[in-house]
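Hi R.,

Here's the chain you asked about this morning:
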Amino acid sequence: MTATCIPLGGRTIDELHEQVILLWYDMKQRDPDQNPSGTIYWTLTDEVWPSDLPGVTTAIDLCDVLRGRFGYPHLTTDERRSLNAKAIFICAQHDAGKSPIMLFRYMMWATRAGYLLGFASLIRSGFSWWVAGLMIAVWSCFGATRMSAQASTKIKTPEWQLPINGLLHVIALLGLYVASLLHLLHL
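And the predicted structure, written out as tokens:
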């Protein structure tokens, strides 16, 4: 591991903490036996987990490791308590379905349903440029939304970028649903 610190990419350390906690919680929901520290470390730093770092068992410990990697002092006991309280709030938001990761999952399933409806429409009722064009638009908007979400974990992006890409994705997806249903029903 190099001794130099890597930049936060325009993010604040608090935003980094939130990302670590959210990613940790989401990965633990999928596989409780997994230790996601290496994956999260790689996601946020583009580096493999260094062999000279001890393994961590909590998101707070990972935040402490990343603080050192980004050139910040280690967490004090009071900062750990405060971050732990914040983690409880972030996890509650995630459980309520309000986290960005949960919204992305909902959009992913809605997109898949739109593709299935579009393909069913094309197979049953023949080719339609409207349906095919909207399927391509949904694919393109989904890619743009996904890329801006990934970019926001690495660098500070404009606040409007992700919501606008998401809105365009929703509009294209609704258009795909309507066009596919109209084409399927021969209207």
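Residues 100-184 form one domain.

Let me know if you need anything else.
M.
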